[in-house]
């Protein structure tokens, strides 16, 4: 896997806390701050206030904590550009929507999923359909936007030049890391020997500098992108091999299992463990056929049994006065929803579960199938301030909630009003 130079410090370690977000002071992690900061960075006036946003095949209005705050903040932007094939809960706020390609029009080589594999394997899939000659590929769209953001005139963005410049700069960083086997090579030589454009060049670079790669001629029998493409069903090079000593880049050669920022947070953890655990907590879940929100707009994936349900253990359901198939009101300090109950002993007592990515009933959304199976958005129950204390990342599991029959909750709310 290739390094991200902007995510490593001078010792080659993952960065943390080099700078902090403007409003709440969340620390930088891997060159980024959490999405829990996004709404406040848009809505809070002052120096550094976010005025522009680009989203790429994403739906943070559904998938982010305190989603109502983000939904309200996006119209405040001076410019919002979305690269997406759907007019969804997020892209409905965009000033410009640039269409992407279908999954069937793009090549595919997985990187993330192989991080959890137990064997050394790889597979490249060619696109099934060609795109029209006059339609830019997604990486060309991104380079065009990058050129515009750099101040280039709209009719003068040279994507080939930007592609060459970025790749050359990236290779110049890769040769600084000895574990990639090309630290003694001239970067211009590596650039010239890497074929293709856009992502293809990065795939070739990753393969050739990997443990099984040809290391640009140093290992003539090693793998290249071209060799991999000759195996359309993929390759299996056997079980994983020990590589810790090869990839570990800490100055002392040891795994830093207790960095200062974790150790310094232990008193807070001890205090938290001493608190009682009375009440229910909410955890998230995903289903194979509705893993992400866009999948809810594909009829063949979303049809069948309702998967947007509140799963509860039988003892919790009985205590709350709700029954299997009934409607419950689920509330937290940030909001409340009503949802069908699924009583199951698959849940631990004290824990309830809602699925990720639903809630397709907002105005302006053009997702006809998803609206038919709208469901509810679990992030309505996620308070924006409920975050991991060290990183500032949203707490996606363990949100305190209350559950009651929907009619009973309505009566209580009416009495309070």
Which features would summarize this protein structure in a list?
417 residues, alpha/beta, Rossmann fold, 2 domains, six-stranded mixed sheet, 15 helices, 26% helix
List the helices and strands and how they pair.
Elements: E1 16-20, E2 27-29, H1 38-43, E3 52-56, H2 60-63, H3 67-73, E4 79-83, E5 96-98, E6 108-109, E7 119-122, E8 124-125, H4 138-149, H5 159-174, H6 187-193, H7 199-208, H8 225-229, E9 235-239, H9 244-247, H10 260-263, H11 266-273, E10 280-285, H12 299-302, E11 310-312, H13 314-320, E12 327-332, E13 335-343, E14 351-355, H14 368-372, E15 399-405, H15 406-416
Parallel strand pairs: 3-4, 4-5, 10-14, 11-13
Antiparallel strand pairs: 1-2, 6-8, 7-9, 10-15, 12-13, 12-15
Helix pairs in contact: 5-6
What do these coordinates show?
- With 417 residues, this protein is α/β, with parallel strands linked by helices.
- It folds into two domains: 5-247, Rossmann fold (3-Layer(aba) Sandwich), CATH 3.40.50; 269-416, Barwin-like endoglucanases, CATH 2.40.40.20.
- The chain has 15 helices and 15 strands.
- It has helices spanning 38-43, 60-63, 67-73, 138-149, 159-174, 187-193, 199-208, 225-229, 244-247, 260-263, 266-273, 299-302, 314-320, 368-372, 406-416; strands at 16-20, 27-29, 52-56, 79-83, 96-98, 108-109, 119-122, 124-125, 235-239, 280-285, 310-312, 327-332, 335-343, 351-355, 399-405.
- It has a six-stranded mixed sheet with strand order 11-13-12-15-10-14.
- Strand 12 and strand 13 form a beta hairpin.
- Helix 5 (159-174) packs across helix 6.
- The protein is globular and about 70 Å long.
- The N and C termini lie far apart (57 Å).
